[in-house]
């Protein structure tokens, strides 16, 4: 689609999250982990002409909400759909009273590190050795040629976002 923006709508998903499994699998390399959180929280979907082209999963936990999963179909990445989903998720969480929203990604995923920081998220902490075979991840998982081992947590506060 040579970089053109795609008109999308974002709405609450009312079906079973298992219907979105291909999108969840694009966001997480561990089927075991996906199965653990798949039906938790709320899911917003991006649609174009009634086709679901992306999702974001939010899990509320008191004042903190977590963006647990986000993905856009590969053919439409880089067109602002992921940013649109994140902004909709932040609006949803903050309008429901969240004080901050957290999101985690692999420290090796340079694209995701840039993506979240461009949207105003700040790095909060690192968890070492999260992506191991004991949690269902492949033994030799890499991103951008970097071994995937550690996870970085980002956060954004309601007061800063608004």
What can you tell me about this protein's structure?
The protein is α+β, with helices and mostly antiparallel strands and about 160 residues long. The chain has a single domain (about 10-160), classed as 3-Layer(aba) Sandwich (Aminopeptidase). About 25% of the residues lie in helices and about 35% in strands. The protein has helices at about 20-25, 30-35, 80-95, 110-120, 160; strands at about 10, 40-50, 50-60, 65-70, 100-105, 120-125, 140-145, 145, 150-155. The strands form 2 sheets. The protein has a 7-stranded mixed beta sheet with strand order 1-2-3-4-5-9-6, with helices on both faces. The protein has a two-stranded antiparallel ribbon with strand order 7-8. Strand 7 and strand 8 (about 145) form a beta hairpin. The chain is globular. The N and C termini lie far apart (about 30 Å).
Tally of individual helices: 5
Q: Please state the overall shape, judged from the principal axes of the Cα atoms.
A: globular
Q: Strand-and-helix sequence, N→C?
A: EHHEEEHEHEEEEH
Number of strands: 9
Structural class per helix/strand content?
A: alpha+beta
The CATH topology: Aminopeptidase
Distance between the termini: 32 Å
**Biggest β-sheet strands, sense, barrel:** 7 strands, mixed
Computed CA radius of gyration, to the nearest angstrom? 15 Å
């Amino acid at each position: 689609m040579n970089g053109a923006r795609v008109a999308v709508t974002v709405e609450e998903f009312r079906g079973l999250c298992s219907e979105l499994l291909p999108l969840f699998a694009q966001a997480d390399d561990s089927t075991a982990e996906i199965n653990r959180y798949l039906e938790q929280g709320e899911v917003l979907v991006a649609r174009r002409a009634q086709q679901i082209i992306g999702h974001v999963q939010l899990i509320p936990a008191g004042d903190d909400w977590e963006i647990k999963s986000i993905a856009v179909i590969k053919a439409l990445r880089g067109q602002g759909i992921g940013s649109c989903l994140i902004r909709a998720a932040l609006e949803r969480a903050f309008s429901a009273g969240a004080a901050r929203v957290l999101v985690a990604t692999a420290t090796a995923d340079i694209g995701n590190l840039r993506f979240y920081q461009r949207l105003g998220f700040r790095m909060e902490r690192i968890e070492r050795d999260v992506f191991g075979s004991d949690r269902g991840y492949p033994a030799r998982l890499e991103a951008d040629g970097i071994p995937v081992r550690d996870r970085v947590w980002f956060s954004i506060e309601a007061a800063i976002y608004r």
